[in-house]
Amino acid sequence: MSLHPRGFIEPCLPTVSRTAPTGGGWAYEIKHDGFRFICRRDRERVRLFSRGGHDWSAQLPAIVEAMRAFPVTSVTLDGEVVICGADGVSQFDRMQAVFGRPGSSEAFLYAFDLLGPDGGRLPVARL
User: Fold this and answer.
1) Which of these, 14, 33, 49, 88, could form a disulfide with 38 (CB 3.0-4.6 Å)?
2) Would you say 39 and 67 are in contact if contact means Cβ atoms under 8 Å apart?
3) Which among 55-64, 86-95, 98-107 has the top mean pLDDT?
4) Per-residue DSSP letters for 27-91?
């Protein structure tokens, strides 16, 4: 029996290394001072899952609204939720405080992976 909510996908976690691998097939991402999240949208329902499977949607309304703005009916993003200061540097202590109160609009998502938009089909962009 799973302790995670239905539809939960475990986020991909970065691997710490002294050297970066070389060659084809590698992608790199910056480690920000935040929390890893899986953000899911199924029609109008949006859920923001922490690594442990807890839904923090009430605490992160700006991210919920951004997920609803995607021109798709379903999408999953894997990313890191952060709060940055005026200098653009993430501030972990401010991020921790978000989870103690609902409705923080300071946090935003650095999305690393786009998983299964509209069942795997990317929307067609018109230029």
Assistant:
1) 49
2) yes
3) 55-64
4) ------SSEEEEEEEETTEEEEEETT--B-GGG-HHHHHHHHTSSSSEEEEEEEEE-B-TTS-B-
Residues carrying an active site annotation: 31
Instruction: Please check whether residue 39 lies inside any domain of the structure.
Output: yes
- CATH number of the domain residue 110 falls in: 3.30.470.30
For residue 112, what is the DSSP state? E
Range of the domain at 67: 35-116
Please indicate, yes or no, if residue 44 is contained in any of the structural domains.
Answer: yes
**How many domains does the chain contain in total?**
1
70 in any annotated domain? yes
The predicted pLDDT at position 57 comes to 92
- pLDDT tens for each residue of 108-122: 898 888 877 666 544
d(CA 94, CA 107): 9
